[in-house]
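User: Please predict the structure of the protein below. I'd like the answer in structure-token form so I can feed it into my own downstream comparison script.

Assistant: Understood. Taking the following sequence of 159 residues as input:
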Amino acid sequence: MMKPSDRETDIWIMLNRVHRQAHRNMEAELRQKGFPSLRVYDLLWGVEMSGKEGVRAYELTSWLLFEQSNLSRLLARQISKGLIRETVMSEDRRGKVLHITPEGAALRKDMWEVYGSGIHQHMKDLATASGLAEFFKQLCDVGGGPIGLPDQRQVSKEM
């Protein structure tokens, strides 16, 4: 069995910390502004990106950024709120196609003001890092600091 190198493990930890911290902050900001969760945004975005043709629910699963557990319930809630419209496929009466409603598109656009700002805030330093060492340092800063491994080394010592 192959095991990850210390560097691979460091990268994995940093990416997960950055993801977790950025999502926590953006979720809090969305709640504070009275918006639904990032899962709702992601769902609305996925349906909107499908265009006029719409999308079947099973097709969304490979597009979404969040885990798909409870996708059916989340979809049902957004349909009941009038943010997503479900239609029956003409060629397969059992199949259903999802379309975003004008209300859903407007909500997604309003949420983007908060979400996009959060992405910028958390990623701006990473996007401007001039090299790998600086990129890793920024990952540590954004994700909550250095990595404590058994030998207590800091990522910056390797860079």
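That's the full token string. The mean pLDDT is 83.
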